[in-house]
Give the backbone structure.
Amino acid sequence: MKIRSIRCAGLRGATPEGGWSNELKPDDCVHTLIAVQTDQGLTGVGSVFTSDHLVRGALKLLEPLLIGEQALEPERVSEKLHQHTFWQGRGGSVTHTISGIDIALWDLLGQATGQPVGRLLGGRYRERVRPYASVLMEEPKPLAERLRTIKAQGFRAFKIGWGPFGRSDALDEAIVRAAGDAIGADSLLMVDAGGSNAFWPHGYKWALRTSEMLADYNVTWFEEALLPDALADYVKLREHSRVPIAGGEVLTRRQSFQPWLEAGAFDIVQPDVTKVGGISEERRIAWMAREHGVRFIPHGWNTAVGLAADLQLASAFPDTDLVEYLNGSPFIDEIVTERWKLDADGMLAIPDTPGLGLKLNRDAVAKYTHGERLFD
Ligand SMILES: [Mg+2]
């Protein structure tokens, strides 16, 4: 089975806020879907966390390496793309775009063999996983209200982050206290400082002090507490914080994770399958993390395709029992034919149907790609 064509289409019209200081508007495009079509009529889908303009540019470079290639050899074909683009876009838009292609190739391999991707990754350790609701921080009162509404939908794990966090110690504590009270002791609470926001103003001492406060509220992990390149500070923070330290969402390529894992920078590593190089790359990072005593929790939350890839990855690792879930995004909830449903324990079933186990609602996709065609 050979690759016949690759299409991409950007999602816009309902882009959720990112909490960034240069905030996203609904019509901004930062999520792009990919469809890889074969000469035998199968179509695999992928997702890229970057704008369609950048994906289109990268595809111009990648297409000649892909058309006519084997459609059922994701790891070899993705590695070929990495190897032949060493001098262009490495770690940036080209790596991001390879991520979407790689996810689509795994989807194709699953469809062609009749197996879920997780099984093809080596086997399924679990049939369901706990999604944690990812919520932008607000002032304590509106945030608490929001969390109560989401808890009523069945979620039992929550991550709050970005927004006003880091403005003052007193407000930070008030936010965390209000969130903890709102979700109750039967739920998990994670805190994401958003250290990869532009001009993040804090350093190690703020992070250590804040980690002490978070420990008092039984927070499950403290994410991006430092500037995303502050490796030495991450190592120190992990050593001294009572709360587990999470990070790595901005890193791409397995080779970039190696020094962080070897140095002991994280308790929890969060590669993003839609940026890092796809499932092939993330699988290798996740095993590398495990050998270093680091837990792997995936970060591909941004579209239904990213979430579907995360579910398959979560099934294939012994201690990956959480995935990120962005609440209220039509790019996750609306573009699928079957809505995501939490069970009574607040868990999501991991599809055991072929490939990613995902069926996109083509009309809904067309609505958010503004009519741009993703499928033939
Ligand atoms: Mg984060």
